Records
---
Amino acid sequence: MSTTIQTTNQISTETETCLPTWQDIEKSIIEVLRAGNFYNKDRNIGFMDYYKKHLDELRQSEDQEQYIIDKARSLLPNEEIYDTKLKAFSNSYYKIFYYG
């Protein structure tokens, strides 16, 4: 009688990175606008107007995938600007939603 040792398949610890599609970006913008509507924010000023313009530009572009790449590069050309904008956005959204 022979015995065999079975090895279990190891689960890969590598995670696949998948870039967001233009549909994902569109859904995210719509969710931000819905949140603003929920909190009765004015649709024509501030962040609501900002995101409405982005949504319109995205929907009107000929190649949406290329649009989001170009827009990301123009808004966040390097890591220092990314960190600065992330901090500013998080502070302003906290003030908007928690302090009216």
Note: The radius of gyration is 21 Å.
---
Amino acid sequence: MKNTYSYILSGVLAVAIIVLYILHFTSTSGSNGGAAKGGNSLVGDSSVVLPVAYVNLDSLLHNYNFAKDINETLMRNQENSRSTLNQKDQQLQAAAQEFDRKLRNNAFLSDERAKQEQQRILKMQEEYQQTAQRLSQEFAIEQQKLNIELEDTIKVHIAEFNKTQGYQIIFSNTGTANILYGDIKYDITGEVIEFLNNRYGPATSGSSPK
């Protein structure tokens, strides 16, 4: 699951900084030093909350029900692929062992028959490798498609969320990717997760975003 989240996270980093408006601070008319004085007052006043916020994407992807469903879908597909390959591998191993047994006991009617059986096993091995490659490619395509769908969903809903919040800028906070330090009062991860899950509903694998 951690590997899947990491991959999803790399796709969602496109939404790292959503600039909704340009931040402007206005000041009342006064002396030439009035604006600078007001700026210093804002910097020194810890009670002032600027119209900016950040979202911890690790937490969001871990708690957003749509992301959970995507992860569950990918894990199920991966398990199905593993099961298919295991079955083919078992068939290949069984055929190879039977060939070796017959070869040691001179059970083949002729050298030609032994060569035919050997070629059949080599073809089984080739088919196994081709199947592994195909399943890997299909998984990568499905993963990319779901990542894009998740990214687009978050973008749309973050914009909708901000209609009632009025933030000027919303950053992402994943390790030290975009924010080296952020006061907890600017962390809106919980609010965003609640908003997204209210829009999406309970986590149900196979559902589509609303």
Note: The chain has six helices and three strands.
---
Amino acid sequence: MNHSLPSAPLPFLSGLSAHWGWLLARGISAILFGVIALAWPRWTVLALALVWGAYAIVDGAFALIYGARGGGTRRWSYIFVGLIGVIAGFVAFFWPNETAIILVMIIGFWALAIGVFEIIYAFQYRRAIAHPWAVGLSGLLSAVVGFFIVMFPGAGALSLIWLIAAYAFVYGFLMIVAALQLRRWRNTHPAMA
């Protein structure tokens, strides 16, 4: 079986593999957020807003840094997703007393936007990257969860906490898998890294 990649995407892949750690950090931070959400499921919406706001700011910052440091030809999409995350995090952080519906809608649109960008990324680079299924699956998961949250914003805060925690665990796991596959590709192709 020939695992060679086309020559055109290699500069992109080698640049992407150099930043596998950012993907790993995003995955770990998502799992940590899930642990925190599960550990205290009866937190008020205020606490959820603060914890989620902090997570969205950190995740957005990682995406911004990755985009700024050379996220390939689609670095603008990482910068856009990073800005959405940071802005949504600050909105949740500075206006935590707003209604639960607003927070639910912010989380829903944020997850939907991330999902769409990750699905597009997975399709565009499916032949050039070693992990398109992990990124595409995490994007589909984000889009489905975001769509569900946007369509049913009146769900109870406790249900939302459990849903978001489960999403964070699965999303974090998939990002870690993608990061480790990029790292493995980089280690098996040292001349291109």
Note: The CA atoms of residues 134 and 174 lie 6 Å apart.
